[in-house]
UniProtKB/TrEMBL annotation:
Ranges where the Cullin family profile domain occurs: 435-664
Record keywords: DNA damage, DNA repair, Isopeptide bond, Phosphoprotein, Ubl conjugation, Ubl conjugation pathway
Protein's UniProt name: Cullin-4
SMART domains attached to this UniProt entry: CULLIN (SM00182), Cullin_Nedd8 (SM00884)
One GO-annotated biological process of the protein: ubiquitin-dependent protein catabolic process
Gene3D superfamilies: Cullin Repeats, Cullin, Chain C, Domain 2, Winged helix-like DNA-binding domain superfamily/Winged helix DNA-binding domain
Species of the source: Adineta ricciae (Rotifer)
InterPro entries for the chain: Cullin (IPR045093), Cullin-like_AB (IPR059120), Cullin_CS (IPR016157), Cullin_homology (IPR016158), Cullin_homology_sf (IPR036317), Cullin_N (IPR001373), Cullin_neddylation_domain (IPR019559), Cullin_repeat-like_dom_sf (IPR016159)
Family statement: Belongs to the cullin family.
Region (Disordered) location: 1-61
SUPFAM superfamilies for this protein: Cullin homology domain, Cullin repeat-like, Winged helix' DNA-binding domain
Pfam families: Cullin, Cullin_AB, Cullin_Nedd8
Pathway: Protein modification; protein ubiquitination
Length: 791
């Protein structure tokens, strides 16, 4: 029983301290069958109830044959009624102590006694009918009112130093009510809780607001002082942040922050950053200005964290962004945006993007436009200068890689910036028709040749992927196809391909990019090479055991005319042994494939010659067929002039010039020429260079075949133009066959929509006129601008 009493005593102290209503707590044992509430009352139960009614605590136990319940109740003591004149006797003592506390002097009564007296006055009754609590509250209000009014002259007479004044005001605010609120907390929890009156804290706030902060002189000095401190901090001076925080907290508690402080603070902030932005955008470099803006935003965020109220955050940040970013986007972009990209200032561009991103999509749109204009301007300079054609593709690859790096690091792979990059790249790359497509095809050829052994297979794949990206941007894909096919034919026939796997990999990339139609002829070329291997294996078996003319070997590639580039027929006088071997192969092939015709193409033939120069070690020379024909002449002649060589080989003059120049004027000179000039003339004399020396046994001289001549280039371009004419004709006829009758403007529009390559309006008109002449269609008799299809 004593243990239960101790437990209830602690409950009483706690409940009294919290000023809560009495509650009954019931703790029951594990549930059992529900029994009736009625039971016999024992003598022990009566004694326990008597003890409880006398002010002691007890635990009531049910009989052993019923459900056990432990009921814990608060102590109930008889109310203490103070004497009628208790307030009159105590108040003078309380008043004297209050005045001492408010004036900062020593109170004659200690705090514990004061608290006991106030508690006794407030706890005699917990409703507003208690006259003692009511009198105590009203008298306290008068004391506080009088005291706060005495503080006004003190604050008005403070010296002009704003920092000292703010400190004094902060001390008055923090100290005048702290102890009093602690002493009168019982009054808050009893009388104020039930009566419709402000709490002690609310009362003090109201009095402080009415008598002090609504005084315009005091309020203005407080707000101006705060603004001055904030301005000093913005100038990177050290200030007392805790003082600013305390006073702003005071304004918030007094409900004066939104009304008196915030509007003035935002107005001065806007004026500061408006003037600062207008001045610094003119004086600072762009990267310095961006760093300054970032620092300002970070500083204002720190102020919001330390002392400015969170409700001001959106407006404050918006003011900084508007006056330092939004109003100067055009100025920033025009001042040094291009320079930052030229100098690879990734950090500055990233910062610019992130700052402009803060102010909305309008600024981002202007940044994208500036990025696109930069790409078009600098890209066009790479494309239109014909003197830089040799370096164009390499510079384009570097430029694209640089832009991709900016896209990744600075613009975080933003999809809209990626589209801007693609559109701008496509725009400038097609400013010069056909040439970029031709040079990209030649760049692919250079990477796929045998001479590119310094790159590993992985590096080669990466380079081809980059070139394929450039290929996507060009409009003249048919030009690329023509030159790629011509170069591929040379690589396959001359045996200069770096890797068959790399060739087929590139073919798959093109197929994936452009479809089966684009690569069908290229695939046919590879099939021809594979079939040629089978044919030559059969030919070797056919020649097994038979005498070979001249004891020479010959390898023939059978090419389907529709798959391969068109080669101009070249005349040449071959050695008799080679002519007889040609006849044997022709009979063998035609016996197995009736109805076919063979046309010998010598332009890409190559040979392996073995030569002895005086008494030196024999050398093997990889040469073209034409080079071999010239060199074989010197088996019978010690010296030949230009005309003799031309007569005995029957080579065309342009081809003979190239051949002789490669043998007599190149790095490897098997012929000596008189006079010693770099050009081939009709009066030149040639002799075999018997003093030729080289560290290798097998020497390649047939690189001349891979060099493209101006005539070859022009003929390839001309074939592309001719093919385009055929496609335009086909598109016009196809459209007219479907529509039967069509106005000129609509026909032009549909032709441009169907064709993928770049064409001019004049070209389409010319093709329409050609179709009219060939009577595929005619003009309407009623309207000359309307065409009618002729079935």
């Amino acid at each position: 029983m004593s243990k239960a009493s101790a437990t209830n005593s602690s409950v009483r102290l706690k409940r009294d301290h919290q000023n809560s209503l009495a509650e009954e707590s019931t703790v029951s044992s594990l549930p059992i069958k529900k029994q009736k509430q009625q039971h016999n009352t024992t003598v022990a139960d009566k004694e326990a109830r008597n003890r409880y009614s006398n002010g002691s605590s007890s635990s009531t136990f049910m009989p052993t044959n019923s459900t056990k319940k432990l009921v814990i109740k608060n102590l109930k003591s008889a109310p203490l009624v103070p004497p009628p004149d208790y307030f009159d006797k105590i108040w003078p003592l309380l008043k004297q102590a209050l005045e001492a506390i408010l004036n900062g002097t020593t109170s004659p009564t200690n705090e514990e006694q004061l608290y006991r007296h106030i508690n006794h006055l407030c706890t005699t009754s917990s409703n507003d009918a208690n006259p003692s609590s009511n009198l105590l509250y009203e008298n306290l209000r008068k004391i506080l009112d009088e005291h706060i009014q005495t503080l006004v002259p003190l604050l008005l007479s403070e010296p002009n130093d704003s920092l000292d004044y703010l400190r004094t005001l902060n001390t008055v605010w923090n100290d005048h009510m702290s102890l009093i609120r602690q002493l009168f907390i019982v009054l808050d929890r009893t009388y104020v809780l039930h009566a419709a009156v402000p709490s002690i804290w609310e009362l003090s706030q109201d009095l402080f607001r009415r008598h002090i902060m609504q005084n315009m002189k005091i309020s203005n000095r407080c707000i101006n002082g705060l603004l001055k401190l904030i301005e000093q901090e913005r100038r990177s001076e050290t200030v007392d942040r805790s003082l600013i925080k305390s006073l702003i907290r005071m304004l918030i508690d007094l409900h004066l922050y939104r009304k008196d402080f915030e509007p003035v603070f935002l107005r001065t902030t806007e004026q500061l950053y408006h003037n600062e932005g207008r001045q610094l955008i003119q004086t600072l470099e762009l990267s310095q200005y961006l760093t300054h803006v970032e620092r300002r935003l970070r500083e204002e965020q720190t102020r919001i964290t330390h002392y400015i109220d969170q409700s001001t955050k959106v407006q404050l940040v918006h003011l900084v962004e508007t006056n330092l970013i939004t109003l100067h986007i055009k100025g920033m972009l025009s001042k040094g945006f291009d320079t930052l990209i030229d100098e690879n200032r990734y950090g500055s561009i990233t910062l610019m993007y992130e700052l402009i991103l803060r102010v909305g999509q309008t600024g981002i749109l202007e940044l994208r436009e500036a990025f696109g204009n930069y790409i078009k301007k600098h890209g066009r300079a790479l494309v239109v200068d014909s003197e830089k054609d040799e370096k164009m593709v390499d510079e384009l690859l570097e430029f694209k890689e640089k832009l991709d790096q900016f896209l990744l690091e600075c613009f975080h792979n933003n999809e809209k910036f990626s589209n801007t990059l693609k559109d701008s790249f496509e725009h400038f790359l097609n400013q010069r028709s056909n040439k970029p497509a031709e040079l990209i095809a030649k760049a692919v050829d250079a990477r796929l040749r045998t001479g590119n052994k310094e790159a590993s297979e992985e590096e080669l794949e990466k380079i081809l992927d980059k070139l394929l990206v450039l290929f996507r941007f060009i409009h003249g894909k048919d030009v690329f196809e023509a030159f790629y096919k011509k170069d591929l034919a040379k690589r396959l026939l001359v045996g200069k391909s770096a890797s068959v796997d790399a060739e087929k990999s590139m073919l798959l990339k093109l197929k994936h990019e452009c479809g089966n139609v684009f690569t069908s002829k290229l695939e046919g070329m590879f099939k021809d090479m594979e079939l040629s291997k089978d044919i030559m294996s059969a030919f070797e078996q056919h020649m097994h055991g038979r005498e070979t003319p001249g004891n020479i070997n010959m390898y023939v590639s059978i090419l389907t005319m529709g798959f391969w580039p068109t080669y101009q027929p070249v005349t040449a006088i071959l050695p008799p042994e080679l002519c007889r071997l040609q006849e044997i192969f022709a009979k063998f092939y035609l016996s197995k494939h009736t109805g076919r015709k063979l046309h010998w193409q010598y332009s890409l033939d190559h040979c392996l010659l073995k030569g002895w120069l005086k008494d030196k070690m024999p050398k093997e020379f990889q040469v073209s067929l034409f080079q071999a024909l010239v060199l074989l002449l010197f088996n019978q002649h010690l010296e030949l002039n230009y005309n003799d060589i031309k007569e005995q080989t029957k080579l065309q003059e342009a081809e003979l010039h190239r051949t002789l120049q490669s043998l007599a004027c190149g790095k490897i000179r098997l012929l000596n020429k008189k006079p010693l000039t770099k050009e081939i003339n009709s009066n030149d004399q040639f002799t075999l260079n018997t003093s030729f020396e080289h560290k290798l046994i097998r020497i390649k001289i047939n690189q001349v075949q891979l060099k493209e001549t101006q005539e070859e280039n022009s003929s390839t371009t001309q074939r592309v133009v001719q093919d385009r004419h055929y496609q335009i004709d086909a598109a016009v006829v196809r459209i007219m066959k479907t529509r039967k009758t069509l106005p000129h403007a609509q026909l032009m529009s549909e032709v441009f929509a169907q064709l993928k390559f770049p064409i001019s309006t004049s070209t389409v008109k010319t093709r329409i006129e050609s179709l009219l002449e060939r009577e595929y269609m005619k003009r309407s008799a009623d309207n000359a601008n309307v065409y009618e299809y002729i079935a």
